[in-house]
Amino acid sequence: MLSVQDIHDHVGKYVKIPESWRSKNYAFEFSECVNSVVKTEMFTEIKNAAYHTLIVDESTDISVSKMLILYMKYRNENESIYKTVFAGILKVIACDSLSIFQAIQNFYIENGFDLNKMVVFTSDGASVMLGKRKGVAALLRQLIPHLSEQHCVAHREDLGLDDAWKNIPLMKEIETLLRTVYTIFCRSSVK
């Protein structure tokens, strides 16, 4: 965000923007320019890191397009704090392990990342992702022998809450209370 502020300050001081540029298209163009700068800096940091973790989750959007959401976790050489950053959204042909594997491999090639620097692959617990023989992690491990896989902590927590919700009577009462409160406010004419 500091890079964005620097660009904004520079443009504000030295570049005169005509009134005709005040449209949505120019806003998108400006956002794309800012994104390009931030993405370049971030990807350079990831490339220079000794190792990184890839965190993925598959999704289907409103138009039923199959998407793969990527995050990367890394640490700069001179820092002790790890960064988790949004790396991108990839469109995949299908939600099978081979398509996802190929999308990840293409992403690494297109952005100049070294697959061998990946030390942990994290995803939901779906067999497509973490299957022992034909999952994405297994396919990646054929290329990266030192790779470890991990079931995402947030997904595990969600599964645990789901189990607790089913087995603890108090949780059902809390759900009923919350649904009732929501219904009252949702149907209120004042809101």
From TrEMBL:
Q: Name one GO molecular function term.
A: ligase activity
Q: Where does the record place the DUF4371 domain?
A: 31-133
**Record-given protein name:** E3 SUMO-protein ligase
Its ancestry begins with: Eukaryota, Metazoa, Spiralia, Lophotrochozoa, Mollusca
Q: Which UniProt keywords apply?
A: Ligase
The family database entries (InterPro entries) matched by this protein are listed as: DUF4371, RNaseH-like_sf
List the SUPFAM superfamilies hit by this protein, alphabetically.
Answer: Ribonuclease H-like (SSF53098)
This protein's source sits in the domain of life called: Eukaryota
